[in-house]
Structures are given as structure tokens and as C-alpha cells.
Amino acid sequence: MNPVPVSLCRALGADLVIAVNLNSNIVGKSFNKGKEDAPTARDGEKSTESGIVGKITDTVREYTTAVFQGNNKPPELQPPSLLEAMAGAVNITQDRITRSRMAGDPPDIVLSPWVAHLGLLEFYRADEAILEGRECVQRMGLEIKHLLSRG
Q1: Whole-model pTM?
Q2: Alpha-carbon radius of gyration of the chain
Q3: Does residue 25 contact residue 112 with C-beta atoms inside 8 Å?
Q4: How many angstroms separate the CA atoms of 1 and 18, rounded?
Q5: 13 CB-near residues (< 8 Å, 6+ apart)
Q6: Which long-range contacts (CB under 8 A, 24 or more apart) does 44-52 make?
Q7: What are the pLDDT digits (tens) for 69-91?
Q8: Which of 122, 144, 125, 150 lies closest to 53 in space, CA to CA?
Q9: Are 47 and 41 in contact (CB under 8 A)?
Q10: What span, in angstroms and rounded, lies between the C-alpha atoms of 40 and 78?
């Protein structure tokens, strides 16, 4: 319930808080399948994900396919699947919690790297996440220097 724990940092005595908001561009993620997204299985295919996540994805996909048969629209015109709708609802809730908490106790600087295209379990894409983190800090470099010089 505290995805960007600014209040905790202040309670621990931090004079300056630089927060990292990983939820800044998460809303709509489930519905925006870009070129960088990992391929997903459709209509009876098995998931490319392994382990429990893949099993859950396959089960939900089989259920939604059984309920909504006969949809021959192109992928970009198809309505979201049950799993996509649920993920979208979770993303919206998480974004709203983050915004609400930061509005009540704003950090001095917010870093918002664009990492929504990375999946929760795509650890093999860590290099992309790290690179985006570095680029985000560079984009905010002047603000960070200004904050540190007055602190």
C-alpha cells in the first residue's frame, strides 16, 4: 500500500527524498502491445511463459476463449481478454495509490523511468531496465544537482 515510501524515508530522518516511481506509465500497459512486448499466445496456443505464471495465463486464456468464441477480428480490434482486463484494473489501482500517497507526502524529486514495456518477471531484460534508470537520472540531472546544492 506504499509503492513509493516517501513518508517512511521522512520518518527515518531523510532531509531530501528522491523517489523512483515505477508506476508512472503503467496505466494502459495491458492494452498497448508494442513491438517491444514479448510474444503472447493466442487462441489455444500455449503460453511462452514458464512456471506458475504460464499455467495461470494458459488457464485464463482457455476460459476466455471458451466463453468468447467466434471472434475473428484482427488482434488490434479484439476486445481485451479477461486477463488483460484484470491486469489493467490492477495497474489503474496501483497508479492511483501511488499518486495519492505522493500527493499527501511529495518527494523533493520524482524519477519516473519508462519501464512499463518490461514484464514483471522478465529478469532477463535487466540490462534494459538499468539503462532506462541511468537515462532517467541523466534527464533529471539538473534538478538533482539543484536539489543537492541547496540541501
Answers
A1: 0.65
A2: 19
A3: yes
A4: 19
A5: none
A6: 49/121
A7: 555 677 777 788 888 888 888 88
A8: 122
A9: yes
A10: 14
In the block, which residue shows the cell 500500500?
1
3-class SS letters over the chain: CCCCCHHHHHHCCCCCCEEECCCCCCCCHHHCCCCCCCCCCCCCCCCCCCHHHHHHHHHHHHHHHHHCCCCCCCHHHCCCCHHHHHHHHHHHHHHHHHHHHHHHCCCCEEECCCCCCCCCCCHHHHHHHHHHHHHHHHHCHHHHHHHHHHC
What residue type is 99 in one-letter code? R
- Side chain identity at residue 56, one-letter code: I
Distance of CA 89 to the CA centre of its chain: 12
Contact 54, 119 (CB under 8 A): no
pLDDT at 38 > cutoff 70: no
98's grid cell: 501511488
d(C-alpha 54, C-alpha 46), whole Å:
8
Tell me, what amino acid is at 135? E
What span, in angstroms and rounded, lies between the C-alpha atoms of 99 and 91?
12
